Write a sequence for this structure.
């Protein structure tokens, strides 16, 4: 991967950036995403945010080497605190972290989001934490994708401010776990992901059945069985 050729995962994230956006890429690491988006003329400007010194310095070097220091500012800071004021950017990308961390970044930086911000979020795990945060904070999930790259499965969630109930039905619990768009249009990656999860959960339940019973263990087991039933009800294959 380099600033000319992104991974399929990051290229898919970029495909949801509206033309001529001012973007902030939080947890930018090598700054490939903002360099690519600006080079392609998709983003008009970018902030690359990093909270760790090493990646911050490598993002700075990348932007300098690409000759993009006028368009891209690399800022050191935690989450959305690198955005100086609401409205400074109109699209925020956060990719390659756990869903719980992404949701906590959004929660801590709520005051930097405006009604016009688009969020493009790519959790490595626990997309449910993001869907729950979006719903609790009146963000509308407007699209989702799931894809496989190098034998890893990635979900991408796109959200804008708005009524979050629009895409959710009485199947809310299942939709938060599996994704309302993804479960309606089940592709190979979706089927693979949930079959992997099912196999893992069933193994855990089997092992729990052999272990000494405690209240906590039984509660965890019922929770897993509930999740297994939900996923089996949704999966087409
Ligand atoms: N976004 C890139 C991608 O998807 O390829 C890099 C992902 S890398 C695994 C995660 C990056 O997020 C790391 O460089 C880490 O330092 C940064 N990070 C983690 N928590 C952060 C936070 N609260 N604020 C800013 N950056 C953060």
């Amino acid at each position: 991967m380099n600033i000319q050729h992104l991974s399929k995962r990051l290229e898919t994230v970029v495909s949801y950036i509206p033309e001529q956006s001012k973007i902030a890429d939080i947890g930018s690491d090598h700054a490939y995403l903002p360099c690519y988006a600006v080079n392609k003329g998709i983003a008009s400007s970018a902030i690359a945010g990093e909270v760790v010194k090493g990646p911050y310095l490598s993002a700075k070097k990348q932007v300098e080497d690409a000759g993009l220091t006028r368009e891209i500012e690399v800022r050191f800071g935690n989450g959305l605190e690198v955005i100086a004021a609401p409205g400074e950017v109109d699209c925020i990308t956060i990719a390659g972290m756990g869903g719980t961390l992404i949701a906590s970044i959004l929660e801590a930086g709520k005051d930097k989001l405006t009604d016009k911000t688009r969020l493009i979020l790519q959790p490595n795990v626990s997309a449910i934490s993001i869907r729950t945060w979006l719903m609790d904070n009146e963000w509308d999930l407007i699209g989702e994708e799931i894809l496989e790259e190098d034998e890893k499965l990635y979900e991408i969630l796109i959200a804008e401010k708005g009524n979050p109930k629009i895409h959710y039905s009485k199947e809310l619990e299942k939709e938060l776990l599996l994704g309302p768009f993804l479960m309606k249009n089940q592709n190979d990656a979706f089927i693979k992901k949930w079959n992997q999860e099912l196999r893992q959960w069933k193994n855990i339940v089997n092992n729990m059945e052999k272990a000494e019973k405690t209240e906590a263990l039984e509660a965890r087991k019922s929770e897993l069985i509930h999740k297994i039933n939900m996923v089996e009800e949704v999966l087409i294959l």
Summary: Residues 189-236 form one domain. The longest strand covers residues 139-149.
